[in-house]
Amino acid sequence: MATLRVSSLLACASSSLHCNPSVFTKLQSSPRWAFSFSVTPLCSRRSKRIVHCIAGDTLGLTVPKESNAPKITIGAKDIDVVQWQGDLLAIGVTENDLARDENYKFKNPLLQQLDSESNGLLSAVSSEEDFSGKSGQSINLRLPGRRITLVGLGSSVSSPTSYHSLGEAAAAAAKSAQSRNIAVSLASTDGLSEESKINSASAIATGVILGIFEDNRFRFESKTPALEYLHILGLGTGPEIERKIKFAEHVCAGVILSRELVNAPANIITPGVLAEEAKKIASDYSDVITVNILDAEQCKALKMGAYLGVAAAATENPPYFIHLCYKTMTKERKTKLALVGKGLTFDSGGYNLKTGANSKIELMKYDMGGAAAVLGAAKALGEIKPFGVEVHFIVAACENMISGAGMRPGDIVTASNGKTIEVNNTDAEGRLTLADALIYACNQGVEKIIDLATLTGAIVTALGPSVAGAFTPSDDLAREVVAAAEASGEKLWRMPLEESYWESMKSGVADMINTGPGNGGAITGALFLKQFVDEKVQWLHLDIAGTVWIDEKKKPTGYGVSTLVEWVLRN
């Protein structure tokens, strides 16, 4: 990942790749490649959702435990909230819901009833804790037989994010109390259309599922959440809301897969492991998904010099080019889409080594966050099975390491479309792998492409840790993706593709360099990728360098999966 100082598991084969040093340029003769494989099948397929395959010589002898993704029964119920019996009741309240009358009693009918049930404790605690219903606030009240949690939604609720937060807060309270049976409701549904109620229920379910999940595969001891049942009250019942909740469960499964892929360290997730995970997805959804994995020799035949140049130093963990294709057997015309994810399972920076306290080299396991989002979306779509669309999921997986065979600053590599690149910074490697991946995607005859990459530190400087940057020359595609992100509750912002900045990317010896002078780095990174996209193809680049990881919580987000799935369904 360029200047950013800032997984499902393991290969059933231990592979070593031996090659003559080369950067695959037109100026050099083709090197000879030889492969030797030592196969040690130690796969445990205990989990239906994630491959647990550990190579016999895994560094550190670390064997992850089985995934503990939550298994919750979720249903919408049309019963009186106050009469509901269970361990924990979470109520989402706006600032208006907390209005009081002249006797300092709640005006809201539901809060009135709950306060009466608690003999005034709810009112007293909310006053004592200065709970005003602002976003991020919550209070907990323990009563005989159950707990009540009030969660602030702000002045009004206008986006899925608020309902996600309500679900997450309910999950946090359930984990703390080890609750088995919880319910979530709103203090008021005034002004909500039937469609809004259904979408709210879906967002609440999403928040609970993702909020209760903890990745404990690498801990010696861990506490498994007790939560088994979630009831969503007061938002309606029937097939439509149940379908939407089931949809949320499918998307969450993809998000959790993405989080686990990102969170697993580089000695667990290698390019070969990522390829195994892709094969597992194709196996699980063989009725709609096929897989093609290309090794280095096959990529060489396709003249992927930019991608193989990055991978050249990682002789112990060779590259694998992943291509999944989703397609139903129905005969209607299908919109052809591609989702391309950056797949650097570890980025040392290469000879431009990441150094210093702020380099975050220890977190460069997440430099495959784009690939994780793409595979998570593939899993979700395999569950949902939409018609009328064909989707190609593409990942050029490799490591960026240092060795005598590795790419050096000043080397020239040649992408599969013949364009030459002077590598003035080996730590701007992701765009080199994406160059060949984007060319490959265009060659599949797709109409639209979204690529996701932890590409630049510049986008974090510009937009911070919560908002991804979107770059595209297509206004229509920009509107599509922005609408999908808004519906899914993920944040992004369209950034300019300032063509004049491309002058700074010119090389004195090749067609281009791979990094610009410094300023506007997120823009020049996107302009670089644009050189490898067919002009007839609509393309959008998402720079997710800031959004893939939460520093404060030391956890991945699974960013991108929800937006990608929503976008595909809208096509």
UniProtKB/TrEMBL annotation:
Q: Which residues form the Cytosol aminopeptidase domain?
A: 425-432
UniProt keyword list: Aminopeptidase, Chloroplast, Hydrolase, Metal-binding, Plastid, Protease, Stress response, Transit peptide
Kindly give the InterPro entries that the UniProt entry links to this protein: Leucine_aapep/pepB (IPR011356), Macro_dom-like (IPR043472), Peptidase_M17_C (IPR000819), Peptidase_M17_leu_NH2_pept (IPR023042), Peptidase_M17_N (IPR008283)
Question: What coarse category fits the chief subcellular location reported for this protein?
Answer: plastid
Report any Pfam family annotated for this entry: Peptidase_M17_N
Instruction: Provide the GO biological process annotations.
Output: proteolysis; response to wounding
Q: Which HAMAP family match?
A: Cytosol_peptidase_M17
Q: Which organism is it from?
A: Solanum bulbocastanum
Q: Which reaction does it catalyse?
A: Release of an N-terminal amino acid, Xaa-|-Yaa-, in which Xaa is preferably Leu, but may be other amino acids including Pro although not Arg or Lys, and Yaa may be Pro. Amino acid amides and methyl esters are also readily hydrolyzed, but rates on arylamides are exceedingly low; Release of N-terminal proline from a peptide
The cellular component terms of Gene Ontology attached to this UniProt record, alphabetical and capped at eight, are:
chloroplast
Q: What family does the entry list? A: Belongs to the peptidase M17 family.
**Protein name, as recorded:** Cytosol aminopeptidase domain-containing protein
A Gene Ontology molecular function term for this protein is: manganese ion binding
Cellular compartments annotated: Plastid, Chloroplast
Q: Does the keyword RNA-binding apply?
A: no
